[in-house]
Amino acid sequence: QVQLVESGGDSVQTGGSLRLSCTASGVTVSLRCMGWFRQAPGKEREGVAVIDSTGRTTYANSVEDRFFISRDNAKNTLYLQMDSLIPEDTAVYYCAAGLNKYTFIHFGQGTQVTVSS
Fold first, then answer.
1. For residue 78, what are the contacts with CB-CB under 8 A and spacing of at least 6?
2. CA atoms lying within 13 Å on the CB side of residue 42
3. How far apart are CA 17 and CA 76, in angstroms?
4. What is the pLDDT of residues 1-16, one digit of tens each?
5. Fewest CB within 10 angstroms: 57, 59, 65, 107, which?
6. With 90 as the cut, is the pLDDT of residue 101 above it?
7. 3-state secondary structure 85-101
8. Residue 45, strand partner residues
9. 36 dihedral zone (left: phi>0; alpha: psi -120 to 50; beta)
10. How far apart are CA 49 and CA 79, in angstroms?
11. pLDDT of 11-39, one tens digit each?
């Protein structure tokens, strides 16, 4: 059974930084395509960042050069470092495990990130 548990969400001011963590069980993060998604109120869920089994990363245009996805294979944990946060980054952030970067089948419960101006 796959379980993904996010943590690290908080309320910060514009320009601040946060690091989200996703502790995985039932799946090996180094062997799967892992990603971060977010959903803002009244909006559809959108992909933020993906890291595949080779370590190759992909980012949404809106977070390029501000967000950085990484993983700790020994801890089986996925991270999302978020810098230069802006109010538009306010959303619930979800960790996900997928078959490839287009197909994600397991999601965590989410962690709230709020950025105030």
1. 21, 22, 24, 29, 34, 36, 51, 69, 70, 71, 95
2. 1
3. 23
4. 999 999 999 999 999 9
5. 65
6. no
7. CCHHHCEEEEEEEEEEC
8. none
9. beta
10. 10
11. 999 999 999 999 999 999 999 999 999 99
HEC-encoded secondary structure of 15-82:
CCCEEEEEEEECCCCCCCEEEEEEECCCCCCEEEEEECCCCCEEECCCCCCCEEEEEECCCCEEEEEE
Residue 86: pLDDT band by 50, 70, 90 thresholds?
very high
Residue listed under structure tokens 């996010």: 6
What is the distance in angstroms between the CA of the first residue and the CA of the last residue of the chain?
40
Quick one: tokens of 86? 């802006």
